[in-house]
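INFO  loader      accepted 1 record
INFO  loader      residues=185
INFO  predictor   begin
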Amino acid sequence: MKILDHKQVKYCNLVRRQEDNLQYLPGLMFKNKLFVKDKSFTIEQQKEAQDYGKKQFLENKGQKGYLLLEDVTGFIIWRESDEVEVWKNTSKNNVSATTDLDKLIDKIRSENGVKIKNRRHRLTLYPKCFIGSDLVDWLTKNLSISSEEAVKIGQELIDKKIIHHVSNEHQFENDYLFYRFFVDE
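INFO  predictor   done
INFO  writer      dumping tokens
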């Protein structure tokens, strides 16, 4: 099974329609096909991730495609799905163009981006998250923008369901609060 990196795929937000409900999911696009997250593995679990991906592919008799993606947080198995579609956010208050935002997300998640790691607050461990003020610092340094503009971009990432506060209790703030990319759920 070939291991892809984040530069070879396009992250996107997906929606699954179920009766009267919409379920929002992190997703990715590869060769014009949509994939939903199946399972995550740590960096140390590369072999287990490969074995799991092969097993799933064989159990589905090749009817569904599976991808193994490596990023800074570990390995993720993605499963092809025809039950989802790309979510089109019709919000009018976009701070940046979608294509620019996609490129920005790739940079934020890169090795030189914001530090994404497991973090502890009191007795609770929050996996694969970053600190809001770290994102603001990174955006102001790398985009030469004010901290107010950086907070607007952070809030746009929340509004577009790209990131969220780990316990969904806060909007985006320039503070020591933990946020996570939906793709890392």
